[in-house]
Amino acid sequence: MDEVFRRLDDIREDLTALYKDLHAHPELSFQEHRTAAEVARRLEALGLEVTSGVGRTGVVGVLRNGTGPTVLLRADFDALPVLEQTGLDYASTQRATAADGSDVPVMHACGHDMHVTSLLGALDLLIAARSRWSGTVVAVFQPAEEIGAGARAMLDDGFLERFPRPDVCLGQHVFPFQSGFVGMMSGPSMSAADSVKITMFGRGGHGSQPQNAIDPVVMASATVMRLQTVVSREVSGDDTAVVTVGSIRAGTKENIIPDQAELLVNIRSFDERVRERVLAAVRRIVRAEAIASGAEREPEFEQLTRFPLLVNDPDATSRTTGALRAALGDHAVLDLPPAMASEDVGLFGSAAGVPTCYWFFGGTEPGRFQRALAEDRVAQEVPANHSPGFAPEIEPTLTTGVKALTAATLEWLA
Amino acid sequence: MDEVFRRLDDIREDLTALYKDLHAHPELSFQEHRTAAEVARRLEALGLEVTSGVGRTGVVGVLRNGTGPTVLLRADFDALPVLEQTGLDYASTQRATAADGSDVPVMHACGHDMHVTSLLGALDLLIAARSRWSGTVVAVFQPAEEIGAGARAMLDDGFLERFPRPDVCLGQHVFPFQSGFVGMMSGPSMSAADSVKITMFGRGGHGSQPQNAIDPVVMASATVMRLQTVVSREVSGDDTAVVTVGSIRAGTKENIIPDQAELLVNIRSFDERVRERVLAAVRRIVRAEAIASGAEREPEFEQLTRFPLLVNDPDATSRTTGALRAALGDHAVLDLPPAMASEDVGLFGSAAGVPTCYWFFGGTEPGRFQRALAEDRVAQEVPANHSPGFAPEIEPTLTTGVKALTAATLEWLA
Amino acid sequence: MDEVFRRLDDIREDLTALYKDLHAHPELSFQEHRTAAEVARRLEALGLEVTSGVGRTGVVGVLRNGTGPTVLLRADFDALPVLEQTGLDYASTQRATAADGSDVPVMHACGHDMHVTSLLGALDLLIAARSRWSGTVVAVFQPAEEIGAGARAMLDDGFLERFPRPDVCLGQHVFPFQSGFVGMMSGPSMSAADSVKITMFGRGGHGSQPQNAIDPVVMASATVMRLQTVVSREVSGDDTAVVTVGSIRAGTKENIIPDQAELLVNIRSFDERVRERVLAAVRRIVRAEAIASGAEREPEFEQLTRFPLLVNDPDATSRTTGALRAALGDHAVLDLPPAMASEDVGLFGSAAGVPTCYWFFGGTEPGRFQRALAEDRVAQEVPANHSPGFAPEIEPTLTTGVKALTAATLEWLA
Amino acid sequence: MDEVFRRLDDIREDLTALYKDLHAHPELSFQEHRTAAEVARRLEALGLEVTSGVGRTGVVGVLRNGTGPTVLLRADFDALPVLEQTGLDYASTQRATAADGSDVPVMHACGHDMHVTSLLGALDLLIAARSRWSGTVVAVFQPAEEIGAGARAMLDDGFLERFPRPDVCLGQHVFPFQSGFVGMMSGPSMSAADSVKITMFGRGGHGSQPQNAIDPVVMASATVMRLQTVVSREVSGDDTAVVTVGSIRAGTKENIIPDQAELLVNIRSFDERVRERVLAAVRRIVRAEAIASGAEREPEFEQLTRFPLLVNDPDATSRTTGALRAALGDHAVLDLPPAMASEDVGLFGSAAGVPTCYWFFGGTEPGRFQRALAEDRVAQEVPANHSPGFAPEIEPTLTTGVKALTAATLEWLA
């Protein structure tokens, strides 16, 4: 394996430059045109069969190398409406027009640039080592992961019919732990996440005459308080769910009772049964609180995003973990508990009916992480994904990401 | 008195034109430059001593007519950021830049245009009838009543020192009841109103990790629910108070816990002791709910506006009521209960230590009002002040307003 | 009138002894057998036509004195389950079995003993002065006022058919203000009061497994918080209502989730429309909060007591007030605002379709009252009705009560 | 091992009779005099060194058998104030005086009678098989487990100094799963449980005058709602905590605002850090809600019971599990997740600084359990501990309990 990895020394400089370029040019979900073009150009240069525009802006590269299983390797490539504050010399200064028409800053605040670079690096190593394996690699560069829509879009665009059907789906995500390490999760691994916009309707009026109005501020506030009981009373201590009202908005003037209120709610769960119970409880409570206020119109629910539960196949994870231990050293492979974060990568495996193994690789400079750990201040000191200060330390993060993907793929194809 | 009123026939056409012009050209608080100039021009034409720029945009006209008492007559002249939807051919299409920099529509949605026109008409009648009275009339055209700042600004600008000190302060407001009628209130008549902006501070975080955040959505919602107890538990059934949270705002994304929440609160009361208890209770509750959430920073309170309680002097009101009964007929003078609405007119009398008498005059077309009354649908069918459909029926509203002011003034000066 | 009142000097000692005896022997609602017997005995001694057992334990005495109108004079005579703590040498040490079977202390904590004594005294004076008036007096000694059931019981027992139909209904209640004074109220004078027992049903379970239970503690608590909005949001500042949850009870063990919760709610109002809106809002909220909790069974509502709104007829009150001013002196007759207290006396007038005039007479020792007033500590220092320390100062309370009833009656019959 | 177990056939009848006798004669915590006497009598008959009155009513038997390690075997023997509704012919009809002086029914609703019987049986088998092992067995019959006080009382009574110091602590609890099976948990296995009585102080008053009172019903209800946020917002999805308000009590009359409210709160956790955060949050919220109400007196907290977290030592559990698999068959030994139930057995091991292994054994008749499982109605159909219908099916529960304890002990001493 060391021999396979040696090729990395030849391409590291190029990959680093690519990473910095991607980082400086982030693009919002389904707007990843520049990124997709660069990916497609490089896949072609590597000799893969390349298809662009899969699921709007997705790119698929197929690398055939004789008979054998098919491994799907997935990297997502969209960025976020966050104003970068890393201070890096390759920091983003990009802005874009968001889906709601507003002008927003854009930043690779979730490390998808590192995912793309690692996958392109791994493909290069696999090609260089093609004599050591046989089978097919399907490299998936997925758009719009951040809004939970990209995997679904690619599948709806005929992905399973148009490209070789995988036997296993692999992928990885950079995360705020020590760079150089990978973290494996088995079974239910990343939470299902449902985002719902709830509009509750009152009746507007003058602030001095509440008796002629139906106050949506009170209605929404009572609802927020009642929603706390979903987790506190309806979810077993053995199960896990989080219900967050991330936004509440009603009214603009102190002396005008507005006519509606809006809640944005995010729901996390690790079990479909729990998820359904929680969603039903949220709907039940919202409707009942509207009744309690005497609302004349039913609340409206709009599903904003839906991320499925990510289940790592225990056997596939065990096998992949073994390969990563061999490749990176036992010490560098951690067992992690399920993460209260969400991903749509699992849809590929679910749709194909094959196992998924998705892991984390660390992105935090080792010294910084160790200091924060010693002081029990990791949450405070280490910028997390989606924060304005989040950016993986390029090395050894990139090397680890390339090696991990390469080794995992070879495990299935060698 | 009929003789005095006869002059109205000569000027009604001009007053009507003036009213329509003012209605079509509303101006926001402290931006009433065009209105002030027109008022000053007319006051000068009537022969009064005119001072402009009192309290930024206010105008004062003094009419001296021999020895005797001094009567202050007050009309306010600012408009509101409301998009007019009356369908009138003289409806406003004006827009202006609000204090917060935003571009807003402007409308005379509170009838101040009718107040100005009525006062100018009354001054004309009083001049025509100057042989019948002696004393001094101080005509006050006040800016910025809508934000509770104009009377204070004029007083702070030396009003009491620069102009003859009044013996009584009179004024009137158009209201959504039958045109042709006036309504008198005695004692505490219009509520004190305090508007407060409250900012509560949590700690932001990812929606999936509430344990690392201090959720301001929950903090603010709990506060709204608790604030309901101020009126339900801390105000006697014999007293009156209204506490309205007109706006609650926190967060923008469903999966991000924001770091603060903002409440806009409006408090009405009819008694200083009740007012102080309510304000203290609001502060106590807000602070305690921040503590309950474990907030690391105290909530902030910003007083947005403050309207004083309007107390009509019972004797002055009784005397004025008698005059209006004589002038308009007994049937046209109603006794009204205190109004849950606010005014800063009372500051003039309080500052001077003299009685105030302030009354309402109806603005709704009689047939429309009677039909609504018969169907018990006044609240639904008759547009109230501040609503986009509010506009007084010009006649007999204007005639009633002019007559009422004239008759009341003559009562004190004849 | 002084001549009429002179008779009081002859009977004061006897009345005082009667009062102390009644005070020492209080009886619960519908258990007033000893009191009723004593009343009947005295009425017979006075020569009235006496009927006992009207509405279970009520007593009616009819005093005919020629042609003329009929005046109903009403005194209630039941006591309360309160442990007397007055320290008086004639304090009650009685106990009784309450309607729920429990053994309770009994006390005349609402002064009905004074009502009985005053009415018997007034009847004596009226008989002594029978040459000065003609007509009929119907003396009503009513049971079970405290539970709002006695007037209804007497009416249901054929009161209007069995006894001369009144032209006016008069009565009085001792109240914690200065003895020697009476207080008059006109129009809506004493609140309607509805008491409701609400049972909310959850599903019991182990405290560690809320997911298998439906928590009635949370359900009831959310309901209490929501009920605060009835007064704060659904009752106009111009109207008056009080909604008090006087008791909440659920569960007995910390680690057992109980299966139901009980709320005892008291609702006061001064207007039938407000009353109906408030009652409907309470029911709506209770039902909705049960739905919000996912309750499997509808909440149950049981009306415990219902006191009607007492409306004093303005003309009858004006006339009676004049008589009391003449009899007691202008200074001794106060105008009082409506009282947030309840009475069923009004049912007699409502049923007969005739005016009611019901007033208060002070029971607090003058010096004590004046000191408390000076210190603004009346609420703290003067024991109110229903408190363990409440007992009218016998004089001048008794004299005032007798005189007031006598003078008021003569006003209608002289 | 089969040979060791054969002895059970000789004593099963006697043990069954003992079990029925214990079941019919349950005793409350620290009142286990009859039970303790019977236990002591039997231990002496078996030839152990017996000490009674350890920790008030506890009994310790020491069985010495040569050199070797010391194994502590613990059975708890108190019962509960529950009215038995099993319908068994040996059902309890006992009553007793509870700590608060009330007369209550008593029932072995938690199976401690089965624990005692199983331990006595195991001691018999161990004595019969004494040639197969060497070392010391300390048999602990603990009082007052139900109130979390017995283990502490025995330790405070010099347990560690007075008796041979254990090398490992073993014990077992009957649980509502299939009889014949045992269930093992490793690591944090049974929750810490803190029970707190909270008294919140308002100011009483008449229900019609809330402005003169401080309403403890509202205060307590707001607190209950806010307490829901402890679990929903302050406990990570990765952690486990349950906060149950099992009882809320305030007031007795609908129209009297009471002066205090009482909450009984039960808190479960699996991690000391989580426990401390939750307890601190509960105290913070209770205090803040008292402040929000303007309470004049601080809330009071009384710790009712405290059960520690039970941590099964992984190595000891692994070793014991192996022994039980060998003795009962692999199929009969289940791996269970941590239980949201609490025990004070762990205090012995903690105090001695040695490992604990505590397991469950099933008590439900196999057919009944299988049917319930098939219908997914275990929670509904199988009576759980502390319920009036809970009683282990004597066989094979007793046999399994004796075998499991015997086999586990031999594992450590053979």
Automatic annotation (TrEMBL), chains A, B, C, D:
<feature type="binding site">
    <location>
        <position position="146"/>
    </location>
    <ligand>
        <name>Mn(2+) 2</name>
    </ligand>
</feature>
<feature type="domain" description="Peptidase M20 dimerisation">
    <location>
        <begin position="195"/>
        <end position="290"/>
    </location>
</feature>
<dbReference type="Pfam" id="PF01546">
    <property type="entry name" value="Peptidase_M20"/>
</dbReference>
<dbReference type="GO" id="GO:0046872">
    <property type="term" value="F:metal ion binding"/>
</dbReference>
<dbReference type="InterPro" id="IPR011650">
    <property type="entry name" value="Peptidase_M20_dimer"/>
</dbReference>
<feature type="binding site">
    <location>
        <position position="110"/>
    </location>
    <ligand>
        <name>Mn(2+) 2</name>
    </ligand>
</feature>
<dbReference type="InterPro" id="IPR036264">
    <property type="entry name" value="Bact_exopeptidase_dim_dom"/>
</dbReference>
<feature type="binding site">
    <location>
        <position position="386"/>
    </location>
    <ligand>
        <name>Mn(2+) 2</name>
    </ligand>
</feature>
<dbReference type="InterPro" id="IPR017439">
    <property type="entry name" value="Amidohydrolase"/>
</dbReference>
<dbReference type="InterPro" id="IPR002933">
    <property type="entry name" value="Peptidase_M20"/>
</dbReference>
<dbReference type="GO" id="GO:0019877">
    <property type="term" value="P:diaminopimelate biosynthetic process"/>
</dbReference>
<keyword id="KW-0479">Metal-binding</keyword>
<keyword id="KW-0378">Hydrolase</keyword>
<feature type="binding site">
    <location>
        <position position="173"/>
    </location>
    <ligand>
        <name>Mn(2+) 1</name>
    </ligand>
</feature>
<keyword id="KW-0464">Manganese</keyword>
<dbReference type="Pfam" id="PF07687">
    <property type="entry name" value="M20_dimer"/>
</dbReference>
<protein>
    <submittedName>
        <fullName>Amidohydrolase</fullName>
    </submittedName>
</protein>
<dbReference type="GO" id="GO:0050118">
    <property type="term" value="F:N-acetyldiaminopimelate deacetylase activity"/>
</dbReference>
<feature type="binding site">
    <location>
        <position position="112"/>
    </location>
    <ligand>
        <name>Mn(2+) 2</name>
    </ligand>
</feature>
